[in-house]
Amino acid sequence: MRILVLLATIAILPALSSYGDQTHEYRECVTEKMRACDYNSFDMSLKIFGWDCLSDCQYRCADEITDKRQSRGLQLYQYNGRWAFKRWFGLQEPASVLFSFLNGFAVFLGISNLVAKVPVTYVLFHTWLGYGIVCLITWFVSFIFHAKDTVTTEILDYLGASTMVMLSLYCMLLRISGRDQYGKIKNKLNYKYGLPILLLFLYHAYNLGFYKKIDYGYNMRFNVLIGVTHHCLLLGWGLWNWNYRPHVKKAVTVIVGSTLALLLELGDFPPYYGVFDAHALWHAATVPLTMLWWSFIVDDCVFETNYYKRKVI
Question: Strand, helix or coil at 91?
């Protein structure tokens, strides 16, 4: 699940510029390579993922200078808000790309399990199905963003992550709300919760960068508020139902695991072998958490279906 640990990703925000790209050595290198750059000589993989002369020259200079400083035992710098990664087949951050794909695949398996085991008549079936589709899109956008960072993919990545956080809160509010004897949601709470959250999302999307540069501090505060609210609701509900619904242990485990995974993001460090940085390792840690989260969702839907079926009978 990509909620609490997401907050750390937002908290450790890439700066618009870094010390490395302010150095004379880096700027001189980029200027020199730009003079000799020939876009027509690029590999097809670079063209597919949107590399141009400027971004390619920036990448190669950061890579060369990092290798040189590392061989001399000198401090490593970030360039243009990120560490220098080893590019594979045109992919800017290959490990994060791989783990984003695996997280998306875990969501796909969860959706498949939901469709196979939960009847469409269950009151939250379509809600969880829609949530799953949004999660799939979010991880796909993460895949694209880590493949090649641009202003557009950055905004989409932040917006996708915020969408998933807000939709998680909406699903949790519906899940813990009161039901009638047939298991139906009371008092049209889906609209009462959904409309304010939708309006809040539109406001957030406006502030995130569609009409101005991304306000990273605002984005962090917004997602922290929504994410912490969701996790407090989930943890409280899980502990309350600890003895009555065995599957809630999975949800609580996801919260604990997410908190531990948070430490990976807080420990920002240069990528090992030019590939595995703290963010990539966080993406790796969320794969089993995502699988466990969807296992909880399906188990809870099945439990609810059987519970209200017995009450009606």
Answer: strand
pLDDT, mean of residues 146-166: 85
- Which helix (H) or strand (E) segment is 158 a member of? helix 151-176
Residue 211 has a pLDDT of: 54
Closest C-alpha to 1, from 189, 198, 248, 261: 261
**Residue 287 pLDDT grade (very low, low, confident, very high; cuts 50, 70, 90):** very high
Cα(251)–Cα(43) distance, integer angstroms: 45
Closest CA to 83 of 269, 281, 282: 269
Alpha helices (H) along 72-118 = 94-117
Q: At residue 10, what is the residue type? A: I
Helix then strand count (H, E) for the chain reads: 11, 0
Examine the pLDDT at 40 and tell me if it is beyond 80. yes
Select from 264, 284, 261, 268 the least CA-distant residue to 95.
284
Helix ranges (H only) for 186-277 are 189-205, 216-240, 248-266
